[in-house]
UniProtKB/TrEMBL annotation:
Gene3D superfamilies: Cobalt-precorrin-4 Transmethylase, Domain 1, Methyltransferase, Cobalt-precorrin-4 Transmethylase, Domain 2
Protein name: Ribosomal RNA small subunit methyltransferase I
Reaction equations catalysed: cytidine(1402) in 16S rRNA + S-adenosyl-L-methionine = 2'-O-methylcytidine(1402) in 16S rRNA + S-adenosyl-L-homocysteine + H(+)
Keyword Phosphoprotein set for record: no
Keywords attached to this entry: Cytoplasm, Methyltransferase, rRNA processing, S-adenosyl-L-methionine, Transferase
Molecular function (Gene Ontology), one example: methyltransferase activity
Entry keyword Repeat: no
Function: Catalyzes the 2'-O-methylation of the ribose of cytidine 1402 (C1402) in 16S rRNA.
Species for this entry: Salinicoccus sesuvii
GO biological-process terms attached to the record: methylation
Family: Belongs to the methyltransferase superfamily. RsmI family.
EC number: 2.1.1.198
Cellular localisation: Cytoplasm
Length: 274
């Protein structure tokens, strides 16, 4: 193997696996987001393998060189600051280039914050969508939250301490009764999981739930709406658009709840717009 995609603890160093320790000891180079953060981990486990920065700001300029080194026989481990690499972190680009070059890689697993938060949420997990971090721009952020709130399956996202109030406020403005779970400091001393209706959760933020640490938000899916089938299809689509859905989302939703073909709903809706 030329690359080991190696999971590390989210916070509690006791979660480090024997396999991960041995992997980091035996490779030639450890690729990491922040060498200072990873140095604390390697020092704790007496790992003296050289560290090399690999992050969003330099990945485009170093990947080809890493591939060349692999082809010359060097082995690498890829880690993130905490948890499983590649998830909401750089790395898929390197994996893609390795596939193109016919190079082998292996995965040394650990937990990811979003999967652990989902387990702890008490919200259905049979179907869910993971969104990572929301867009930073306010307009795009609001649009993404509206989209998320329209889904019937559970949604999971990451949020920062200084944005969590804004995100919960946006959720409440759409559906204050929607069940939401917040997890923070997962596996650490002050680990916390709270499940409440969105409007109640908003009141807890900054009080019972400190605005510290990274947050994982799990949102219950939207309930299937009771449909008045005497309403024309076009009016039904227009009503969902007024609630914040895009035309594409509204057409898909109407087709699902009315058990119609999406193309038929699309054609009928756009025919009235001519």
């Amino acid at each position: 193997m030329k690359l080991y995609i190696t999971g590390t603890p989210l916070g509690n160093l006791d979660d480090m696996t024997y396999r991960a320790i041995e992997t980091l000891r035996n490779v030639d180079v450890i690729l990491c987001e922040d060498t200072r953060t990873t140095r604390k981990l390697t020092t704790h486990f007496d790992i003296d393998t050289p560290l090399r920065a690999y992050h969003d700001f330099n990945k485009g300029g170093v990947e080809d060189g890493i591939i060349e080194e692999m082809q010359d026989g060097r082995t690498f481990a890829l880690v993130t600051d905490a948890g499983m690499p590649v998830i909401s972190d750089p790395g898929f680009e390197l994996v893609s280039k390795m596939q193109d070059a016919g190079l082998k890689y292996s995965i040394i697993p650990s937990g990811s914050a979003f999967t652990l938060a989902l387990v702890a949420s008490g919200i259905p997990s049979y179907e869910f969508t993971y969104f990572g971090f929301l867009p930073k721009a306010n307009a795009k952020r609001r649009k993404k939250i509206q989209e998320i709130m329209s889904y019937e399956q559970t949604s999971v996202l990451y949020e920062s301490p200084h944005k969590i109030m804004d995100t919960l406020t946006a959720i409440v403005n759409i559906d204050g009764g929607r069940m939401v779970s917040i997890s923070r400091e997962i596996t650490k001393k002050f680990e916390q999981h709270v499940r409440r209706p969105a409007d109640e959760m908003l009141q807890l933020l900054g009080h019972e739930i400190p605005l510290k640490g990274e947050f994982v938000v799990v949102i219950e899916g939207a309930q299937a709406e009771a449909i008045e089938f005497d309403i024309p299809v076009t009016e039904h689509v227009e009503a969902l658009i007024k609630e914040g859905m895009t035309p594409k989302q509204a057409i898909k939703k109407v087709a699902e709840v009315r058990d119609l073909k999406k193309q038929d709903v699309y054609d009928e809706f756009h025919e009235t717009k001519k």
